[in-house]
Amino acid sequence: MPKYYLLGGENTHKRDAEEINQIAFNDAGKSPRVLVFSWARASFDRAYPKSQLMFDYFRSLGACTVNTVEYSSTLEEIKERISESDLIYLTGGVPTVLVERLKKSDIRSLLRDFEGIIVGRSAGALALCRKCIVTCRRTSEIKIIDGLGLVDLTLKTHYKLGKDEKLVGLSKTKDVFAVPKDSAIVYDNGKLSFINKVYLFCNGKRQTVSEKPLES
User: Which of 64, 66, 73, 161 satisfies CB 3.0 to 4.6 Å to 77 for a cystine?
Assistant: First the structure.
């Protein structure tokens, strides 16, 4: 069973979750072999500027190799790539697209049985959870979609203080964890721990569940 790091988000150019990523990379052992599932976009082009930025970033964190895998790859190809990795990284993108592609590729069981570290950032974090709270950028409307259910909680990423009304309403029927972009939830065999401020909406109220300092 893997250990999950659920990051609220990150600006890769600014590396504003670098310390959290470093903790996850260290947790995967010295010089981990990293496998990246591509952004939820039409394809993952190695010439795309963000890809090289990400490769350089992960190598600076200690990765000995950084490989990518496409959702269109065969299940056997994906299985082989996963078996050669110590850390799997699910990047951001459009949550609904990412969840759809992960489900279509039928890799849930491969991720569930992985004996390493899985990092989900932004949409990647949402996709790993039982329920995902997604905000439409155009209308600010909130909807709940089903994730892969590997982490048994309802998650909101990119959380900002003050935008609570809809989350408060939702929390009257289900607990909601809200994670800002510089924070993370760590899920290890059903046990939760937190890095920096993470918020829990429960029974119509918001509370801070952690303000644990970063540790390397």
Answer: 73
State residue 70's pLDDT score: 84
Tens of pLDDT, residue by residue over 73-92, are: 899 999 999 999 999 999 88
DSSP string, 93-145: B-HHHHHHHHHHTT-HHHHHT--SEEEEETHHHHHHEEEEEEE-TTT--EEEE
The residue-averaged pLDDT of 33-43 equals 77
According to the model, what pLDDT value does residue 45 have?
A: 45
Looking at the chain, the number of H-run helices and the number of E-run strands are 7, 12
- CATH for the 3-211 domain, from 3.40.50.880, 3.20.20.140, 3.40.50.300, 3.20.20.220: 3.40.50.880
Q: Work out the number of other CB atoms within 10 angstroms of the CB of residue 57.
A: 18
Q: How many CA atoms lie within 13 A of 158 on its CB side?
A: 16
- Residue-level pLDDT at 111: 96
The predicted model scores a pTM of: 0.91
Alpha helices by DSSP H, the chain: 18-27, 49-60, 75-83, 95-104, 108-112, 123-128, 165-170
Rounded CA separation 191/173 (Å): 22
Cα angle for residues 214, 176, 134 (degrees, 5° grid): 95
Q: Which of 96, 87, 120, 122 is nearest to 41 (CA)?
A: 96
